[in-house]
Amino acid sequence: MLESRRKQFKKILEKEFDKRGQFKFALCSLTKFLIDDKPGNDKPEKKNSQTDWLRNKQIIVNNKAEIDDYLSNAFEQILYQVEERGGKSNA
Description:
The chain is an alpha+beta fold and about 90 residues long. It has one domain (about 5-85). The protein has helices spanning about 5-20, 65-85; strands at about 25, 30-35, 45-55, 60. The strands form two sheets. The protein has a two-stranded antiparallel sheet with strand order 1-4. The protein has a two-stranded antiparallel sheet with strand order 2-3. The chain is elongated. The termini are close together. The model has no long low-confidence stretch (mean pLDDT about 85).
């Protein structure tokens, strides 16, 4: 989902850079995880879900030419959080 919005994120960040010359941002993603029931439960095939916010560390944008790299870094941080929590996401 994050990659599908890359152009929109980039456009916003470029506008912000043009206004300020440098700025900070932290990308957030509302994510829904699927969690398997633990063994021994009455219905092990049932899946529960958990909704959570994932936030990347603040990134300082000081070079307009590298905005794609900054976005990649933010996406990578969020995807790492998804993997770390053992969930699968459309992030």
